[in-house]
Amino acid sequence: MIDTASPLYSVPRQLVLPLISSTDSYKMEFIAGTSNLLARHWLLREGIKEEWPERRLILWGHSGCGKSHLLHVWGRAHNALILPGTALREGMQEAFLSLVSAHGGGAIGIDDADLIESEALLLHLMNFIQEQKGHLVLVGRSSPWGWRYQLADLQSRIRASLSVQMMPPDDDLLRILMLKLMACHQLVVSTAVVDWLLQRLPRTAPAVYEAVERIDRFSFQHGLALTREVAGQVLQQMGCLNMEK
User: Domain of life of the organism in this record (predicted)?
Assistant: First the structure.
């Protein structure tokens, strides 16, 4: 525990402005690991999308596994239009279809596809992309076999799509991610502190992002080096500090 009565706390705290983070997940290099090997194969291997049944792929996995990041990597590689699933809802049909038509329908990615409200709009999108001989990637948190639709035609198309599960990040991937983020923030950290953090953080990329962001801000505000005590203070704020580990 850090002693707030310490002379280290006697210096005026610096004001930290909410600048855009240089560690935005879509700007960071995607980290390859065993947990995303299958997903990378079916999305990023050259020419692989021509092997997708009906030119559709559904990528799914638990929150924080990196599927949205991988979708954007695929999007950049194929000049794809990436949209949130919440855009496919009643009242948005004209604006949505206008945007998709302007893009040309060559490659479309829908994130949070399991949150789509308008089944008719999704079916229309599938028809349009098929007519244009384009490719569609749908990303969701649960297996598409659990997606329930009232439209039988839509349900059958979802079932006919290639479904690829993305596994939670493995230990090596999380370690590389944390070290990359620390380097981006110019934080000097020992291997012991990294190990200590990874043992206590949730095993997701967002948790690692949040921890490093908080540690950077805390260290800067208080003028402290990154020690285990500083890391512990931040993890307490996040509510994930277990001193028994």
Answer: Bacteria
Could you tell me which residues come within 8 angstroms of residue 127 by beta carbon, excluding any fewer than 6 positions away? none
User: How crowded is the C-beta side of 229, counted as CA atoms within 13 Å?
Assistant: 7
Q: Comparing C-alpha atoms, which of 86, 68, 77 is closest to residue 204?
A: 68
* The one-letter amino acid at 220: F
Give per-residue pLDDT as tens, 96-145: 878 888 887 789 999 999 999 999 999 999 999 999 899 999 999 999 99
How does pLDDT run across 179-236, given as a tens digit for each residue?
999 998 888 888 999 999 999 998 888 889 999 999 888 888 878 788 888 888 888 8
Asked if residue 196 and residue 143 are part of one domain, the reply reads no
CA 116 – CA 156 distance, rounded (Å): 17
Final residue in a domain of this structure, among 139, 165, 191: 165
The pTM is what? 0.78
Report the domain count for the chain. 2
Q: Are residues 161 and 174 in the same domain?
A: no
DSSP-derived pairing of the beta strands 135-140 and 56-60: parallel
Domain final residue, candidates 123, 138, 165: 165
Q: Which domain holds residue 123?
A: 34-165
Tell me the three-class secondary structure of 162-202, residue by residue.
EEEECCCCCHHHHHHHHHHHHHHCCCCCCHHHHHHHHHHCC
